[in-house]
Design brief:
Elements (H helix, E strand, L loop, with lengths): L5 H17 L7 H22 L19 H9 L4 H12 L4 H8 L3 H19 L3
Helix pairs in contact: 1-2, 4-6, 5-6
Length: 132
């Protein structure tokens, strides 16, 4: 969700799993592993964006609206149109089913900040969908 480019996402995905392979960390359960992977993926994507900051001319880019044949594609399309700080929180809450306190720990934010971003993110999604 952070990269907006499939090949960049593949690069980060590969880097995260290389880090997992090389890691000597022991995980207490699957939830611990999942939280670690999400945190490492967020950091990897942020680092990738910073190190590969490049400008792409917008002329000639065709932006077709997707054919909403399934709910997942619809949600991905809408999330990509929200600002990054709301996108992360919305994704973790709705797609990964994390609770507010868990998201706060993962993103190193205050719980009230997470709640505010969820509310504002929902408002943005409503405006994207054009209704309630």
């Amino acid at each position: 969700m952070r990269l907006e480019n499939y090949s960049d996402a593949e690069d980060c995905f590969q880097n995260v799993y290389v880090k997992l392979y090389k890691s000597t960390k022991s995980f207490s359960d699957e939830e611990h592993l999942k939280a670690w992977l999400i945190r490492v993926a967020i950091n990897e994507c942020s680092s990738y964006v910073k190190s590969n900051n490049r400008e792409i001319p917008m002329e000639g880019i065709r932006r077709d609206e997707p054919d909403f044949t399934d709910e997942a594609a619809d949600m991905s399309w809408a999330l990509m149109r929200t600002p990054q700080k709301y996108r992360d929180v919305l994704y973790l809450y709705y797609c990964e089913q994390y609770k507010v306190n868990e998201i706060a720990k993962l993103l190193k934010l205050n719980e009230n900040t997470v709640k505010t971003r969820l509310r504002r993110g929902r408002d943005i999604l409503k405006s994207i969908y054009g209704g309630d």
